[in-house]
Automatic annotation (TrEMBL):
Residue intervals of the Dynamin-type G domain: 260-536
GO biological process terms, semicolon-separated: apoptotic process; endocytosis; intracellular distribution of mitochondria; mitochondrial fission; mitochondrial fusion; peroxisome fission
Organism lineage string: Eukaryota, Metazoa, Ecdysozoa, Arthropoda, Hexapoda
SMART domains (UniProt xref): DYNc
Protein's UniProt name: Dynamin-like GTPase OPA1, mitochondrial
Organism, scientific name: Musca domestica
Catalytic activities: GTP + H2O = GDP + phosphate + H(+)
Classification via PROSITE patterns: G_DYNAMIN_2 (PS51718)
Amino acid sequence: MLRATKHIAHRDTTKRVTYLCHKIVVSTNSQYSTLNYRYGGASSNKQQQGHGYGGKHHYYRHDFLAPHGPKAWTIPPNRGYGMVVVRILRGALKLRYLLLGGAIGGGMTLNKKYEDWKDGLPDLKWLEEALPQGEKWSQFSKTLIEIGGAVKDVIEIAKDDLKAKTTVAALSLSQDDSRRKYETLQSQVETLQTEIMNVQIKYQKELEKMEKENRELRQQFLILKQQKKTGTKKIKKSLIDMYSEVLDELSGYDTSYSMADHLPRVVVVGDQSSGKTSVLESIAKARIFPRGSGEMMTRAPVKVTLAEGPYHVAQFRDSEREYDLTKESDLAELRREVEFRMRASVRGGKTVSNEVISMTVKGPGLQRMVLVDLPGIISTMTVDMASDTKDSIHQMTKHYMSNPNAIILCIQDGSVDAERSNVTDLVMQCDPLGRRTIFVLTKVDLAEELADPDRIRKILSGKLFPMKALGYYAVVTGRGRKDDSIEAIRQYEEDFFKNSKLFQRRGVIMPHQVTSRNLSLAVSDRFWKMVRETIEQQADAFKATRFNLETEWKNNFPRLRESGRDELFDKAKGEILDEVVTLSQISAKKWEEALNDKLWDKLSNYVFENIYLPAAQSGSQNSFNTMVDIKLRQWAEQALPAKSVEAGWETLQKEFITLMEKAKKSPDHDDIFDNLKAAVVDESIRRHSWEDKAIDMLRVIQLNTLEDRFVHDKSEWDQAVKFLETSVKAKLAQTEETLSEMFGPGQFTRITHWKSLTEDQNKRRYVKNELDKILKNDDKHMPTLSYDELTTVRKNLQRENIEVDTDYIRQTWFPVYRRHFLKQALQRANDCRKAYYLYSQQGTDCDINCNDVVLFWRIQQVIRVTANALRQQVINREARRLDKEIKEVLDEFSEDEEKKAHLLTGKRVTLAEELIKVRQIQEKLEEFINSLNQEK
């Protein structure tokens, strides 16, 4: 479908053709063209498919469906061949493309297309008369070329005219208004500044590209160098690693920076959430620190040593593990470890700690320096903080900044008002002249939106704050996204400074004052400059300190070698382990004697109070034996095994302590170890416990032993009688002591020692006299007093004007009766001494009551068997387990510096520790100075 608005004037094909085309819209939705024609007064519609209807004297009417209705064209007969051409080209090959291309491209192109098209037509002889031939077609194409040239001339004339008019207008405006000329010049200056900035950025990109290539080459070189040296000799430490080791040795030696530790380090200080940690991460090129939204994350000083290396890795000073900083998983683990170490360093209810977390970060292109990240300064404390948190942070910050050679990296949040800053006042106090301060304005991207640009320029030019600094820098350390990588942050920072209005319009900020890269270069340069200026003085100071300490040691301890706590601890550890070895060399006989004594000491009270006395006071032999069997079995099933294990453990403990005490009497004994040895022994004993299965094993053995009720030979009988007499005498001695306290000393003692009886002792003496009468009348009296006997005693005492109650009488009766009973038991034991043969013949029906001896024989047998079992357990298991626990305690103490400092004390230790540390520092300083001079 072809829709067009045309006005065509065509008089002669040889004359000039004026062709004006307003609009051409081409639509190819249909394969055919619709031709309305009128022939002989009749009209019809035909679909032309490459065939034509022709005639020299026919009249045609074509409807083109123009916007304003159909337009009728009437073609004279002498021009019929032109209409035939138009009809054929429209219907067959869409001549509209050919006409348009010829008008624009020229007649030559049109001619070529026409020839190509003509060769591709089928054999249509009847069209030869209708198509233009020879001169006619050449003239037609020449006319089209002339039309194209004319149009081109008109366009050029219009351009020249417009240019002339613009020039005249600009000259007129410049003459009329000088102010606009000035603004134009100023705009040109700003444009030049922008171009300069772009050139600078382009230069930096090229420089970074070259540096990256250089790093890659250097990385390959370092790898090859490392591979070459591996296996032949130890790789030489880098300069910054040597310097970092010196600072590690100094940590804790001169905490007040008042003596010798004036070595430079970069101290990063700032308000909380000001971006301190982000600046450090940007310099380290890795997000190595934990992050929190408004929460205090830095709770302890973190010393970060930056060094160049082939791989981007991080490592703690006290750990062998390396974290690959190119892997997000390792970065996450590193951040968790840093947070864990910070929280572990905070003890005793504190919020911040002074313990330094030392870390090394290596990677290609890193600037060599040592930075210390400190907790942010706070103005308000929260309820979960310790009450001294604010003061502790202030003191810690002043402590690090008071080092006269520390480089202060003062971090200021650009997104908040400068008047709200707390850090600038502290910096001015420690460095009023600004000779070692570098000011860093962070979050400049937010500052550009929130603050006055002129105010920011004043800050970076050093005209807003009263504090002075060596340099002023502006950085962007992120977009507030935790997941952004360092590469993304650096790109964002670079794009910001490239497009920021702060640095493009009337800016006084130089390009070297922006970006974290320029900051790290400046800080590193200043750091090494201060190191070279001060290192010789520090080495001389430590050399003098070492000489003084060595002189003092020779005067106080002339025959001793200076030994630090670690060496002394190792020596004490060896002595303790030697004593454990000696423990296993104790003879079996000595073990059994010690265990026998301890067992009876633990069991005697139960045997007398719960078994022997209740059974012996029952009144008959049969009831005695029955009660003894029942109580012995209950005892063996319940309390006896546990008490036996307890006795075995106490025996082991006693023997070990005895050996330790003997070691103190040795001529080689050094009393400096006494506190440490005692602490190790106490802790090991506290942890040690007997094996649980020992109780079950002892229960079986003891039950089987107590089942034997018959004494086998005379020697065992004699031992049982002796054991009975010894036990009864010991218990009788205790009873006599109780009676002495109750009734007071005897008459002889009162006279010789000038003592008198108390009122209660006098009263009890009267009660005792009445009770003795009862026992004298009934030698086999029962253990308790009857009601009548109590009444009789009270009435007799009343005649003496002594008022007592029945409880008072019973309290006095108990020790009196016990002494009476024990004396009878001793008499029975003596009677039974020679009655073994009679017992062996008659058994339990013996005329002499020797059940006491049999009971104590059974007790003696179970103690002997138990002691033997415990001895085997001690030798085979418990001594080795104790040895293992002592080693574990020693290992724990060796890692606890506070514990060692508490247990190994005295002038000898402190002086030796200081001398050893100063000697190490001085030697490391000399080694570092030699390497530094070689690098120059």
